[in-house]
Amino acid sequence: MSQSSTQPKVFVARQIFPEGLDRLQQFAQVDYNDHALALAPAALMERLKSADGALVTGSERIDAKALEFAKQLKVVSNIAVGFNNFDVQALTKKGILATNTPEVLTDTTADMGFMLLMAAARRLSESERWLRDGHWKNWSLGGMLGVDIHHSTIGIMGMGRIGQAIAKRALAFGMEVIYYNRSRLSPEIEQACQATYVSKEELLQRADHVMLVMPYVPENHHLIGTKELAMMKPTATLINIARGGIVDENALALALKNQMIFAAGLDVFEGEPDVNPRLLEVPNIVLAPHIGSATKKTRLAMMHLAIDNLIAGLKNQRPPNLINPDVWKMS
Fold first, then answer.
1. Which of 55, 108, 319, 330 is the right S-S partner for 312, CB 3.0 to 4.6 Å?
2. Which pLDDT score, from 0 to 100, does residue 3 have?
3. Is 19 a catalytic residue?
4. In a domain, 276, yes or no
5. Does residue 4 have a pLDDT over 70?
6. How many distinct structural domains can be found in the chain?
7. What's the per-residue H, E or C state across the chain?
8. What global pTM score does this model have?
9. Does residue 182 have an active-site annotation?
10. Domain range for residue 229?
């Protein structure tokens, strides 16, 4: 299809699957950054100048500086459920629609959270490294002892879609489910998840396994630090599939080193893709490179939903997953 000057201009900030690029090229003039690495802030700002719409990932910071010269930008679509890379206030002030991709990654990310929990509790990474290094010479009764998952207590901090999906998986293991959330769930959802609402302090003190699934907002920065880690059982695990800034990584590394808690599993990091070197020095942690939603089926669904959101906004239709509805009300 030949591109027309009347077509909207779409900037794609990162490599996407060919199916998505084909869709966009049928609809718009596409400025495509065909690389896996994020653009530098200055380059991102330059590419947004002439764009009517932008398809980005959670690694592109869309703030007032990035938007300074984006005079014709109408919609920015995130290929992610989290949107802490967006300055929503700045986008709203400029009348730019902001969207994300919830729901399509719920179960896949919940699977990942439970996998990290099992790997941390049963020392999977540590024992594999030990085996690969040639240390396994015989079976022993006290060798590589972990902690049980079945019939233990899981404390879920952040009981949205993913948290609820984790709770339902926990029930299959006979686990007691307690949770802490900004607001208490309805009785119907609590019953479906067989979950009990508790304070943050009670959750940290009671849980055998603490699972972090809340969104990153400024008030959640370093929500888990030295004080909170000291509340946990020495046999407890901490799993973070939310956002890196929720955990004080220096405090976590020290707690693991001093065996204040048993183990941890992280799929997200405060400075990712850089990893705090202190975390690499402790053996009782499982580290993954932000792959919570990384199955082909799920990542395709995320990409297509993000494109749906983008195209809707450019067609002056309300996007299915609008983060800042105030902009729509003003239009």
1. 319
2. 46
3. no
4. yes
5. no
6. 2
7. CCCCCCCCEEEECCCCCHHHHHHHHHHCEEEECCCCCCCCHHHHHHHHCCCCEEEECCCCCECCCCCCCCCCCCEEEECCCCCCCECHHHHHHCCCEEECCCCCCHHHHHHHHHHHHHHHHCCHHHHHHHHHCCCCCCCCCCCCCCCCCCCCEEEEECCCHHHHHHHHHHHHCCCEEEEECCCCCCHHHHHHHCEEECCHHHHHHHCCEEEECCCCCHHHCCCECHHHHHHCCCCCEEEECCCHHHECHHHHHHHHHCCCCCEEEECCCCCCCCCCHHHHCCCCEEECCCCCCCCHHHHHHHHHHHHHHHHHHHCCCCCCCECCHHHHHHC
8. 0.93
9. no
10. 106-287
